[in-house]
């Protein structure tokens, strides 16, 4: 389970939200969703099953996820979703334009890039990746394979590092919350990373006796915010 990315991108007065996350080793996909007005406009899913089979590390998969996230952002800034947004909502992405709330989703398979493979866009993506390469982001990983089961105690060890240097990030604020379909959300644990960028969290996972529940692990620092999600 590798930390994801959440980025708001403004293009011609329309705010697109890009969320990229790892679906986990049991479903080895990197999924990027593009939201407008709370609705999904497009999705990009890429399998990393082959990378796992080749024995690639979690850091290599995290790099794949980062690259995909940046490519989707580059596509938005290049205006590649503007026409589709106009077709689906009857709105335009010009100044002072209101975006209708209902947007259909378009799924792009793992063999198709969200962006068009033309020279002009390749240049846009290259320029964007070059400009973003120097920006640090927070990276969070869960160590080992912890058992996270309703009604049992949990022991989580997490590490936080810089995407640029790989150095540990100290004093990252970690919080574990449980959300479900049958009860209000509840904070289970809070802590901060030490000088080595690590934090150990011990807590009890409530047994709700039904419904669907998930743990949301949030990490916050000056480098940004990372969310990890685990379905119970």
What labels describe this entry?
single chain, 232 residues, alpha+beta, Immunoglobulin-like, 5-stranded mixed β-sheet, 4-stranded antiparallel β-sheet, 4 helices, 12 strands
Protein architecture, described:
This protein is α+β, with helices and mostly antiparallel strands and 232 residues long. The protein folds into 2 domains: 128 residues, no CATH class; 94 residues, Immunoglobulins (Immunoglobulin-like, Sandwich). The chain has 4 helices and 12 strands. Helix 2 packs across helix 4. It starts with a strand and ends with a strand.
Q: How many structural domains are formed by the residues?
A: 2
- Largest sheet, strands/sense/barrel: 5 strands, mixed
**Intertermini distance:** 14 Å
Principal-axis shape: globular
Order of helices and strands: EEEEHHHEHEEEEEEE
The low-confidence parts are: 91-119
Mean of all residue-level pLDDT scores: 76
